[in-house]
Design brief:
It is a single chain. It is globular, with a radius of gyration of 21 Å. The protein folds into two domains: 91 residues, no CATH class; 201 residues, Vaccinia Virus protein VP39 (Rossmann fold, 3-Layer(aba) Sandwich), CATH 3.40.50. With 299 residues, the chain is α/β, with parallel strands linked by helices. α2 packs across α3 and α3 packs across α4. β4, α8 and β5 form a beta-alpha-beta unit. The chain has 13 helices and nine strands. The strands form two sheets. The chain has a seven-stranded mixed β-sheet with strand order 5-4-3-6-7-9-8, sandwiched between helices. A two-stranded antiparallel sheet has the order 1-2. The structure holds S-adenosylmethionine.
Length: 299
Amino acid sequence: MAQRAVRKAVAGRVGDLLDQVAAELEQANLHYGHGTADARDDAAALVFHALRLRHDQVPAAYRRAVTPAGRERVRGLVRRRIEERLPSAYLTGITWFAGHPIRVTPDVLVPRSPLAELCERGFEPWIDAARVQSVLDLGTGSGCIAIAAAHALPRAQVDAADLSPAALAVARDNIRRHRLQRRVRAVLSDVYGGLAGRRYDVIVSNPPYVSSAEYRGLPAEYRAEPALGLKAAAGGLAIVARILSGARAHLQPGGILVVEVGDTEAAVRRRWPRLPFIWLEFERGGGGVFLLGAADLAS
Ligand SMILES: C[S@@+](CC[C@H](N)C(=O)[O-])C[C@H]1O[C@@H](n2cnc3c(N)ncnc32)[C@H](O)[C@@H]1O
């Protein structure tokens, strides 16, 4: 008993360990933004995961004693975060999107799209959520957007399409964990290639849009993600161009197309000067997302 008390004193409390890890990550000059905002956020993800604590147990969790075994697990994750520059979500295997837990592996991009906010609102005010019966998530990766849309639109059938069989395996696992197998279907498809004849009320996409030149300059954390999820030819515009050109044939009358293009926004405006893009704003930050109505694409 006495020995146990001494061990606990040596290993410290969760709050102290969290402070130490946050300081260590800060020192290591890492890149954040893969589901965590900064060193402290990243430290909390790693420490809580390794110690099997729940984030809703804060602040009581900070006062809990850390066992030596728990501390070792934390040290192991922190070492990998710093040495391998892996986003913390790949170390914990989980992240949150639109308030929903999403499993991730290095076969999928770590979910972080501002589109989460739009999914939460069922794409309102741009379409009447009560009327939405069909949604296509193009380039679904982990399935995060398809799953968030299905939760917000309980009457909708959702196609979650991707070119990567490995990503679709992760998406299928998430769909099953969310018990959405009846309404969300994972589809192998090269843009619209596997979706002939299908039309949707909403087509939503966070496609690859990073140019090769920009990709080479990205922090190491991005290199841990599948390049297929980030890089696109033609200065980042190749997949966006295919999404735009096929959208009219796959939208219902009155439907909407919503696409994230991030920093490629200026290039998109230059390449399609006549398209009446609406550029969306988000309360929680982020941008580079355009919206077009089916009628806009007709013109
Ligand atoms: C930026 S990631 C987005 C993943 C997920 N939707 C998210 O927001 O986290 C882009 C996804 O598009 C997929 N992709 C790339 N090229 C594609 C293509 N030609 N057709 C369909 N999907 C493609 C990639 O495999 C990747 O999963």
